[in-house]
Amino acid sequence: METIILKSLTMRNFRGEKERTTEFNADVTTISGANGLGKSRHFDAFLWLLFGKDTEDRKDFNIKSLVDGKTQDKVDTEVSAELGLNNGKTVNLRRVYKEKWVKPRGQAVERFDGHETEYFWNDVPLKQSEYIARVNDIVNDTVFKMITNPMFFASMKWQEQREQLFQLAGTIADDEIAQQNPDYSALLDKISGKSLAEFKREISARKKKLRDELETIGPRIDQTQKLMPETADFDKITAEISELEKQIEQADIEIADRKKADEQTARERRDLMNEILELENKQTKIVSEANKQAQETVNAENAQYRKLQQIVDVLQRDIVKIDSEIEQCNAEISTIQKKIANKQTEIDNLRNQWADENAKEFSGDLSCSVCMQPLPADSVDALKGLFETNKSNKLDSINSIGGSLKSEIEQLEQSFKNDEKRIDELQIKRSQKMADIAITNENLEKTTLKEVAEIDFSKLPKFMEIETKKEGLNKKYEKLQNQPEVGVSDLITKKREISTQVEPLRTTLRNRDLIAKYTAEIAELGKKGKELAQQIADAEREEHTIGNSIKAKIEECERRINGLFEIVTFRLFEYTIDGNEIEVCVPLVNGVPFGAVNTAGQINAGLDIINALVKHYGISAPIWIDNRESVNSIIDTKSQIINLVVTTEPTLTIS
User: Fold this and answer.
1) With DSSP H G I counted as helix, E B as strand and the rest as coil, what are the percentages for the chain, rounded to 5?
2) CA separation (Å) from 450 to 306, 456, 462, 519?
3) Residue 432 belongs to domain spanning
4) Is residue 494, in this structure, part of any structural domain at all?
5) Which of 192 and 95 is assigned the larger pLDDT?
6) Closest CA to 63 of 96, 93, 35, 33
7) pTM for the complete prediction?
8) Strands annotated E in 55-164
9) Rounded to the nearest 5 degrees, what angle is found at the Cα of 599, between the Cα atoms of 150 and 565?
10) Predicted pLDDT at 505
């Protein structure tokens, strides 16, 4: 059993406590005094030291002391404690909440820059994560609150209370219940891989689905019976249909024969049209060949004219290129002229600078700036020499820049001359091209361009021979085209009339199949209804088995849990009117709900719960009992007890 004993607790500037150290007895310590003196503050400080929270499990709560309703600057809040552990081991814990003040660069006044928390273990500073890890090595924060505050367990959500109780009682295996119920044992084999709750929901859903389906069987049978057609002499109807179908078949044969004759005539027309088209294609080829020969003859005669025309086109394209190059040279000349003018302006400015600089004379101060006496002769000579040197350097620099500009102007002028020379050459070349165009145009005017003459088909023997054959075929085609079709409209009308007689008979005959079909459906629906009723009965039997097993498990679970406590019992399930269980967790003290019991009863019930938790987790810690004055006596416990008692005393008393 791990034991935690609080030996001493020190608070500095914690929630109104400027500084206080409280020593605690190993068994029972009583802190008494009037309200507002800081009894509960001890427990808040202890929890904040360990976990950074207060008794209400809040992280964000005010821990700093207030003066006239305001916090004091540059005052640290600190809580420390000495804990006794097993084997006489002692550990000192300290948590300090500090203000951070910084002085920005260039400023004389410090400014507040937030808070930071420091952690110490036996006076050794730790990181937050290391401190939390060491505290958790001793005890988990949730377990600590459950075993140090008699009211904490009852304040937890009922789901969390229930979970803790099941951890205390241990799991009740299904096999334990199945040993007492063979039906439940067989059911467990069936639901392998699923939870009992899942299988129960599955049964409920399946049963609802089965009942919904069963309710549809009767209406479906009634509906099917309403759809059942009346019976008739189906053999006689079959014979009548057979006779009429033979007449339709004979009409189809006659229609096919007539269509065959019409198709033969249409085939002959297509063959004649194909022959005519073939002859027309041959005529087209003859005309195309004659046109080709005539075109070749004219092309040969016009060859000289087209050659001269091509020469003119080439010369004109050359002139366009020459004009473009002349235009480019003129643009370059214009640019060069502007550059020369700009650089000449720069040279003129440099001449003026040189004249101004050359005219400067030494005019420095020849007196000492300290004593105001004339400078020695050697100092005066040195100043004059320095002036002349600087002047000479500036004049040389101006001359050097002027020389560079003059050289650039000479290069630009040479480029100017080159472009003018190139323009002269291009103008001569252009004049030559224009002369060549004039000569070629004179030759073109002397040459006549001939055109292809229209062909006279009557002078083409092969064309006329084919034309004669084509006229004979056209006469045959016209004769077939005027030949009327045999036609099948009368037979189609006859067939339609017979079919009109057959269709009502077939509709009546189909009733025979419908009667057989609906009769079979009614029988199948009756069979399905019996199967659904049996499946519903099986599902209800499984639900009954599950209900009995759950009730047995509930009773066993409550028995185990309630056996862990002396004065407290827990109701873990309630039942609806239909007998279905509902999960709850209601702590009872002598059969009365915890919330309805007086303070003394609640405190002793809380101690009873703590005793069970201490036994389960194997660790005890100081139990803080607030409102201890409301309890005459408390049940025995192995933990250290710290009583917080309200009295009328104006100061706190520790005993």
Assistant:
1) 65, 15, 20
2) 11, 18, 28, 99
3) 303-446
4) no
5) 95
6) 96
7) 0.49
8) 66-67, 70-71, 77-84, 90-102, 111-121, 124-126
9) 50
10) 76
Q: Report the C-alpha gap between 382 and 373 in whole angstroms.
A: 17
Strands 77-84 and 90-102: antiparallel
DSSP-assigned letter for residue 484: P
Q: With respect to residue 634, please indicate whether it lies within any of the assigned structural domains.
A: yes
Question: How far is it, in rounded angstroms, from Cα 234 to Cα 211?
Answer: 41
Mean pLDDT of the 30-42 span: 89
467 vs 463: CA distance, rounded Å:
6
Say which range, 343-347, 522-526, 530-534, 578-582, has the weakest mean pLDDT.
578-582
The predicted structure's pLDDT at residue 441: 84
Answer with the one of 418, 446, 474 that is the final residue of a domain: 446
pLDDT of the residue at 176: 59
Last residue of a domain, one of 407, 423, 446: 446
CATH number of the domain where residue 78 is located = 3.40.50.300
How would you list the strands of the sheet with 623-626, edge to edge? 623-626, 641-646, 28-33, 653-654
**Residue in 513, 540, 623, 482 with CA at minimum distance from that of residue 200:** 540
Residue that the structure tokens 């937050």 belong to: 128
What is the H or E stretch that residue 148 is in? helix 141-148
Separation in Å, CA 622 to CA 340, 604, 609? 104, 15, 15
Indicate the number of domains in the chain: 2
Beta bridge partners of 619: 2
- Count the Cβ atoms, other than its own, within 10 Å of residue 638: 12
Please, which residues have CB within 8 angstroms of residue 147's CB and are 6 or more apart in sequence?
610, 613, 614, 617, 619, 620, 621, 623, 639
575 Rama class: left (phi>0) / alpha (psi -120 to 50) / beta: beta
What angle in degrees, to the nearest 10, is found between the helix axes of 158-169 and 599-617? 50
Least confident of 520-524, 578-582, 621-625: 578-582
Query: What SS3 state is found at 488?
Result: coil
SS3 653: strand
Other Cβ atoms within 10 Å of 435 Cβ, number? 11
Taking residue 587's Cβ as centre, other Cβ atoms within 10 Å add up to 24
Residue type, 643: N
Q: Which residues pair with 11 in a beta bridge?
A: 20, 79
Report the chain's C-alpha Rg in angstroms.
61
Residues 323 and 182: their CA atoms lie apart, in Å, by 117
Q: Residue 579 falls within a domain, yes or no? A: no
DSSP letter at 482?
T
pLDDT band at residue 179, thresholds of 50, 70 and 90?
Answer: low
Contact 365, 380 (CB under 8 A): no
Q: Which residues touch 187 (CB under 8 Å, ≥6 apart)?
A: 542, 545, 546, 549
Torsions phi, psi of 78, nearest 5?
Answer: -140, 140
Residue pair 346/354 in contact (Cβ under 8 Å)? The answer is no
Q: Which residue has the tokens 């008393």?
A: 653
Distance of alpha carbon 469 from the chain centroid: 81
Residue 614's pLDDT is: 92
Locus of tokens 């004059």: 384
- For tokens 């252009």, name the residue: 430
Retrieve residue 309's tokens. 């025309």
Residue 330 forms part of a structural domain = yes
Quote the tokens at residue 516.
Answer: 């057989």
Q: Looking at this protein, which amino acid is placed at residue 112?
A: F
- What is the rounded (10 degree) CA torsion for 221, 227, 228, 232? 180
Distance of CA 585 to the CA centre of its chain: 42
Cα torsion through 516, 522, 527, 532, rounded to 10: 140
